[in-house]
Amino acid sequence: MKKISQHGQWSSRLAFILAATGSAVGLGNIWKFPYITGENGGGAFVLVYLLCIFAIGIPIMMAEIMIGRRGRQSPINTMRDLAKEVGASGAWKWLGWLGVIAGFLILSYYSVIAGWAMAYVVRVGSGVFEGATADGVSNIFGQFVADPEKLLAWHSLFMVITMLVVARGVKGLERAVKFLMPALLVLLVLLVGYAIDQGAFKEAVSFLFSADFSKITSDGILIAMGHAFFTLSLGMGAIMVYGSYLPSNVSIGSTAVIIALADTAVALLAGLAIFPIVFANGLEPGSGPGLIFQTLPIAFGHMAYGSFFGTLFFILLVFAAWSSSISLIEPAVAWLVENKKMSRMRACIWSGLVTWIVGIGTVLSFNITSNIKIFDKTFFDVLDYLTANIMLPLAGLCIALFAGWVMTKESAEEELDFKQLYLFKTWLFLVKFVSPVAVVIVFLKAINVI
Ligand code: TRP
Hints:
Elements: H1 13-24, H2 27-39, H3 43-71, H4 75-85, H5 93-125, H6 134-145, H7 148-167, H8 171-198, H9 201-209, H10 218-231, H11 238-243, H12 252-280, H13 291-302, H14 306-339, H15 344-365, H16 379-406, H17 409-416, H18 421-446
Helix pairs in contact: 1-8, 1-12, 1-14, 2-10, 2-12, 3-4, 3-9, 3-10, 3-12, 3-16, 3-17, 3-18, 4-5, 5-7, 5-14, 5-15, 5-16, 6-13, 7-14, 7-15, 8-12, 8-14, 9-12, 10-16, 10-18, 12-13, 13-14, 14-15, 16-18
Bound molecules: tryptophan.
């Protein structure tokens, strides 16, 4: 018997692609990818990241969508029921829980950074960056993050708009994303154009694409792999829960490939827009989370109609973050509705409140508590490292094992419905062996066991 989801269904294949791409394309691509690439030495890091996307990310994305559609419930209940169907342990539901917790933790800091992007809509719009020097732009950023009240206000606003959308279901966002994602792409291309014209483009291209493996550490490899999960929204049930709203006749394989390619394209374009400006202005590529906020305003400050394009850019970045943030909380909300019989509204208020409170920790870690460090990391750094580099790959590993070894081959084959048998066999080989082994090797390398 085919199951249906009590929360509804996407209206079409395109709607799903837009929603999932909306989830995948976010701060991860435009804010995080450039700064971690900068911190980890460039080309070799990018190469490892791309390898992880193709060998680990895409097969696991297919597995997540497939499991979600097979279960048609929140990830926790889906894992529990699918495990029960094949007589496997009920403990698989903890995988769903791991995802829900990771989602809360990620959203708590994601919302703070999205708040920065909102603040920059106003800053760029007011023209403060016109003609500004690299130093001036850095100072403005430094003063901004030093002010906890400002960060808290923007974080609060972002949490409110996120929960408003989730409360009303994702239909509205589906419509908005249809226009906004292409617009973001156009603006990114425009910025790359500016960077080619005005920036140190050659230097940036060689930084991004010539791999010097002496520059990458085993921790860098872990960060590249963690980012592949983060940027594709994998390992926490976001894509699983979106898959549970997917009509049964849509092919999963090609859809996952489209989403991953779109996501990768946006990240690389962001890199090509940002690094030419970094090098042309003598900025430090490894300057951390503030990187885009310290580089792009320089470009906007000098190009014709820069304040206009800059405002537009940060608006679109907020939208990209918005369409991602809703997917971070959807698994928790779906579970509260299913198991606690809450209305969607109530479920949103509770989960939003918890996330908002945890987010205050991140707000303070950029100013008042910036000196309090665990393993040389601030609260924000710890959350980011723990979620992206440990929780997501760990959960991804379990998802691959579940899809490859626990579910029956027949049910996976039926759900994925590949047109050619060799495609299914390739996928099965990847989730059974390649992805799990790769994740384990990277983990072991990061803790210096191998
Ligand atoms: N992929 C998003 C980004 O790149 C962030 C995100 C949304 C996410 N949903 C997720 C990350 C689920 C991990 C898991 O900005």
